[in-house]
């Protein structure tokens, strides 16, 4: 792409490099691609349901395609129409067959962790692996509690790192108190609980995203959410359903912040999922002074959906921590960009989980924002960010992480010179069309 403000080229290491020029305004009306978390779950539960599941709005990013390929490799026919609609011919809870090869989860933490739970209760052997980033991410957080249900799983460093080898077996239901608020941990246990007699209960310190619970109910499972946790009755009969996947608030987040920090901006984003367990970014930005209005609020496939209207707003620093964190965990990188351009100081605490995402997002955002004139101090569990009037230009790196790449692209809109971002091919993980959309709305 070579046009007014965004240039993509390949560098000497054959990596994509993108330069983004400052913007004078952001405006228009856009839709963002489907929710990544919901897309994964639609393929998984559609495959375990009886009969056909039709999925509209599926996110065709690399992470979700890894999940799609995995279920096809376990014998589930999944058709794709030219418009990207999926037809999943589910074979029921016991309809998967042993994959003939190792399952490659690519960069996707959700794929590997949820599937570890789901495969633990099968009658076959399977191996899960992923790319060099995924193979460095902690897996014991699911392997260890699954072992208390009887699961037999082996991995490098005593089960901490993939590849993970799973000898499926009979599972017993369990009650687990998770020390971290993680939807991947919770969902891995609930998916294992599908194969156990009795009730599986997961408690967590703060409520993490509840897409699994909502979709399990939609497909006919008995799920009870209560203060502090969730319970699921084992051995349900899941029925194929029609699933509408709303736009991903984690993708909308980049455009929300772009509009807020660029004076004179006015942007509408259609069909965004506004599940309360995911909407932390809206609440936090409003606390900073943002104009964000929810219009046409409705419900689709058990998930709340809305259009968002955003106008540029002067932002001020705030304190972020505790239960704010799981509700905005994937948006904290782009919130750190908003904070860098707010008046005063923002403090983010209790966000140690950011250190074990696709990359160490505390280290990555603090080092890269500081390279372009930000004032960010990394803390063990967060960041202290002093706002500046404007960022400068320069060269930064995505650290191979899609959300870091897109957050830096947003920061570049409010820099005084062009920002060149190294290693931007990773945006295909969750948002293949990001650069075109950014070009469309920037003036
Ligand atoms: C996800 C849960 C979160 C989130 C990730 C997607 C999910 O991870 O960061 O991008 O779909 O369940 P954790 O469960 O590790 O917090």
Ligand species: shikimate-3-phosphate
Number of strands: 26
Rg, rounded, reads 21 Å
Estimated share of beta-strand residues? 25-35%
Q: Which strand order do you get reading across the main beta sheet?
A: 1-2-26-25
Low-confidence stretches: none
Could you give the topology of this structure?
Elements: E1 6-10, E2 16-20, E3 27-31, H1 36-48, E4 50-56, H2 62-72, E5 78-80, E6 86-91, E7 103-104, H3 109-120, E8 125-129, H4 140-148, E9 153-155, H5 156-159, E10 161-167, E11 171-172, E12 175-177, H6 183-193, E13 196-197, E14 199-203, H7 211-218, E15 223-226, E16 229-233, E17 242-244, H8 249-261, E18 266-273, H9 280-287, E19 291-300, E20 303-311, E21 319-320, H10 324-327, H11 332-340, E22 345-348, H12 361-371, E23 375-379, E24 382-386, E25 394-397, H13 402-412, E26 419-422, H14 434-441
Parallel strand pairs: 3-18, 4-17, 7-8, 11-13, 12-14, 21-22, 25-26
Antiparallel strand pairs: 1-2, 2-26, 4-6, 5-6, 8-10, 9-10, 14-16, 15-16, 18-20, 19-20, 22-24, 23-24
Helix pairs in contact: 1-2, 1-7, 3-6, 4-6, 8-11, 8-13, 11-12, 11-13
The structure holds shikimate-3-phosphate.
